[in-house]
């Protein structure tokens, strides 16, 4: 059976796996973005706190994904839970780092001007600092999403959702007629999803970043 024949025969299951894969990555990225930006906001004013937040999230990223999921299984069981926790933790570093860099890179004179017209600290953060820091934050989100697309495939090890199930089935049946088709369909599916997500982020950037900041 050729690759395209395999895809035609299995398109319903492949689309289901692709939807579950995209959904898991999207939801984990939402949580990672909220936590990462919050950590950036809490630590960017202090050199040691910012370094601690970056170092901690970088340490998490050094843990192999299989080991991370294996450590989580005895605690939260199989399925969606270890997948969500692992992906969220892995997505933090690029967002935290870029949030800190972006917030520290805001022109102090703009912040002083906002303070001079009576803006509170919260108002300055929400109306001046975060909008100006948004481009690097969005870049961090894009990088994290591309990482999680690949890491999410390992979720199949813990009976998690996504295209990793197709890859693992192919690896488990190496030598059979459709083993290569299974691995290839899962891999190409993840690549396509990664490209679609990145295109969506480009569009979001064009809609949310003013021309002056982009320039």
From TrEMBL:
<feature type="transmembrane region" description="Helical">
    <location>
        <begin position="183"/>
        <end position="204"/>
    </location>
</feature>
<feature type="domain" description="ABC transmembrane type-1">
    <location>
        <begin position="18"/>
        <end position="201"/>
    </location>
</feature>
<feature type="transmembrane region" description="Helical">
    <location>
        <begin position="24"/>
        <end position="44"/>
    </location>
</feature>
<dbReference type="InterPro" id="IPR000515">
    <property type="entry name" value="MetI-like"/>
</dbReference>
<dbReference type="GO" id="GO:0031460">
    <property type="term" value="P:glycine betaine transport"/>
</dbReference>
<feature type="transmembrane region" description="Helical">
    <location>
        <begin position="51"/>
        <end position="73"/>
    </location>
</feature>
<keyword id="KW-1133">Transmembrane helix</keyword>
<keyword id="KW-0812">Transmembrane</keyword>
<dbReference type="GO" id="GO:0005886">
    <property type="term" value="C:plasma membrane"/>
</dbReference>
<feature type="transmembrane region" description="Helical">
    <location>
        <begin position="143"/>
        <end position="163"/>
    </location>
</feature>
<dbReference type="InterPro" id="IPR051204">
    <property type="entry name" value="ABC_transp_perm/SBD"/>
</dbReference>
<dbReference type="InterPro" id="IPR035906">
    <property type="entry name" value="MetI-like_sf"/>
</dbReference>
<dbReference type="GO" id="GO:0055085">
    <property type="term" value="P:transmembrane transport"/>
</dbReference>
<keyword id="KW-0813">Transport</keyword>
<comment type="similarity">
    <text>Belongs to the binding-protein-dependent transport system permease family.</text>
</comment>
<keyword id="KW-0472">Membrane</keyword>
<dbReference type="Pfam" id="PF00528">
    <property type="entry name" value="BPD_transp_1"/>
</dbReference>
<protein>
    <submittedName>
        <fullName>ABC transporter permease</fullName>
    </submittedName>
</protein>
């Amino acid at each position: 059976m050729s690759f395209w024949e395999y895809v035609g025969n299995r398109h319903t299951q492949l689309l289901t796996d692709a939807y579950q894969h995209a959904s898991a990555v999207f939801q984990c990225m939402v949580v990672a973005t909220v936590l990462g930006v919050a950590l950036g906001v809490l630590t960017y004013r202090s050199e040691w706190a910012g370094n601690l937040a970056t170092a901690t999230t970088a340490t998490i990223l050094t843990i192999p994904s299989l080991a991370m999921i294996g450590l989580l299984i005895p605690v939260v069981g199989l399925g969606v839970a270890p997948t969500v926790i692992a992906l969220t933790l892995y997505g933090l570093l690029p967002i935290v780092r870029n949030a800190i860099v972006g917030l520290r890179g805001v022109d102090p004179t703009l912040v002083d001007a906002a303070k001079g017209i009576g803006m509170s600290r919260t108002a300055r953060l929400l109306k001046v600092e975060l909008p100006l820091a948004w481009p690097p934050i969005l870049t961090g989100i894009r990088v994290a999403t591309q990482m999680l697309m690949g890491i999410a495939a390992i979720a199949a090890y813990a009976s998690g959702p996504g295209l990793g199930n197709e890859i693992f089935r192919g690896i488990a049946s190496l030598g059979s007629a459709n083993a290569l088709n299974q691995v290839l369909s899962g891999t190409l599916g993840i690549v396509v999803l990664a490209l679609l997500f990145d295109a969506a982020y480009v569009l979001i950037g064009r809609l949310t970043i003013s021309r002056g900041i982009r320039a």
